[in-house]
Amino acid sequence: MAGGFNTEMSSDTNKQYNGRVTKFVILSCIMASMGGVLFGYDIGISGGVTSMEPFLRKFFPKVYRRMKEDTNISNYCKFDSQLLTSFTSSLYIAGLVASFFASSITRAYGRKPSILIGGAAFLIGTALGGAAANIYMLILGRVSLGVGVGFANQAVPLYLSEMAPAKYRGAISNGFQLSISLGVLSANLINFGTEKIKGGLGWRISLAMAAIPASILTLGSFFLPETPNSLIHRGSDKKAKLTLQKVRGTIDVQAELDDLINASSTSKEPNHLPFQQILQKKFRPQLVMAITLPFFQQVTGINVIAFYAPLLFRTIGLGESASLMSAVLTGLVGTCSTFVSMFIVDRLGRRVLFIFGGIQMFISQLMVGGIMAYKLGDHTELLTKGYAYLVLVFICVYVCGFAFSWGPLGWLVPSEIFPLEIRSIGQSITVAVNFIFTFIIAQTFLSMLCHFKAGIFFFFGGWVFVMTAFVYFLLPETKNVPIEKMDRIWREHWFWKRIVGEELECK
């Protein structure tokens, strides 16, 4: 078997899990993470094409005329259009609905089928978007992409966390956010290139290029192994052992296999449906985190940058090409910062990154809001180039803070805290909450920018302050804790032990 790193259990037990991070598991996780690339690509591509003038002329002529001809409208309101935001947000309402179907499929049939369905839906959405002849066909393509995102976001984080050894789970699971960042960066680069194509066909190429990662995900999913956790949960203990030996690179996997079998046996004892189980008092901390972490991830305001960065940069005075190039820069900063996070998350832990990232985002948002409030009026001249680029610098600082903290950890922590009996429904709730608030922000941001003006950054900054305090007081550290032993962190936490401590001790 391929070489790798030795892995061991956390200090709460005397046992060690044998094995290493093999090339086999790395390649499997890279293939699965293509779902993240597609998610990121769809996030980044929408902001770019909606700033392209040929795209606006064809599908949103009112917005185009307002941008070019209306001198009486506020600088903050030029792109305020519910139809325009529907193009972006329709993906997420479709993903919300799809995530509930994905939960049942992921639980009953495994993680691999959900990844395959997600890839196929991505291909259909890409074809519809690239060939769109009217607004209805365009939005139908986004809906199909949303179905793909719903299945991929349900299955991929679970797949990565279950395939990864406990000691390196943070780094491997953060590969999902790295993939999202790479997808956003790729979309921004493609938008910057296609904007220069004459004839107004650049936006079609931008939308159609998603077919490349979609094809890789769809075809590659046929060759992915199912996770040992899922195989055991569905009664294939013998196959699970063979898979575990293959992904760990050793035949001596009995200790880890026994713990997985015990966890699966425990998960099958209650005679409740998964949703009824997660409502039990003993799972209260996991339920709270499944709701609050994705909610907080969205109210950081990151999707304001991800969806509408080119429009935002045009609002403050940059030209079409400069705005797209600025979006490329923010994408590059996000990708590099996420890559750094992969190397430090299992050394420093989750809490440290959450807190320091929150502080960095809070300060940078106050600076952006302050500059815009001071220098960008409703009908006055736009920002000078000096101030516009200063705003860009602070936005990059903000993106950096998000990309090494709330970006990857908002997916990592929920994927690793659920016991097996509620893992699928827990991930489904996480994805659903994420989609609900992504949809709300995507649909309302341009109106919020119009009404709040520069205050929008103070609004999101306030939420960053609240969520950083939440992590400091209520989120225990999950670094190096095996998934099947994760219940111990709640009974040792100063707050959560009051709720679950007695019940867990009686187990």
Briefly characterize the structure.
This protein is an all-alpha fold and 507 residues long.
Given the helix and strand composition, which structural class is it? mainly alpha
Shape by Cα distribution:
globular
User: What percentage of the residues does DSSP assign to strands (E)?
Assistant: under 5%
What is the name of the CATH topology? Answer: Growth Hormone, Chain: A
Return Rg in Å.
23 Å
Order of helices and strands: HHHHHHHHHHHHHHHHHHHHHHHHH
Distance N terminus to C terminus?
38 Å
Contiguous runs where pLDDT drops below 50 for at least 5 residues? 1-15
What is the typical, i.e. mean, pLDDT? 82
CATH architecture call? Up-down Bundle
Number of strands: 0
| Biggest β-sheet description | none
CATH homologous superfamily label: MFS general substrate transporter like domains
Number of helices, where a helix is a run of at least 4 consecutive DSSP H or I residues = 25
Description:
The protein is mostly helical and 507 residues long. The chain has a single domain (23-225, 277-502), classed as Growth Hormone, Chain: A (Up-down Bundle). Helices cover 75% and strands 0% of the residues. The chain contains 25 helices and no strands. It is globular and about 70 Å long. It starts with 22 loop residues before the first helix and ends with a helix.
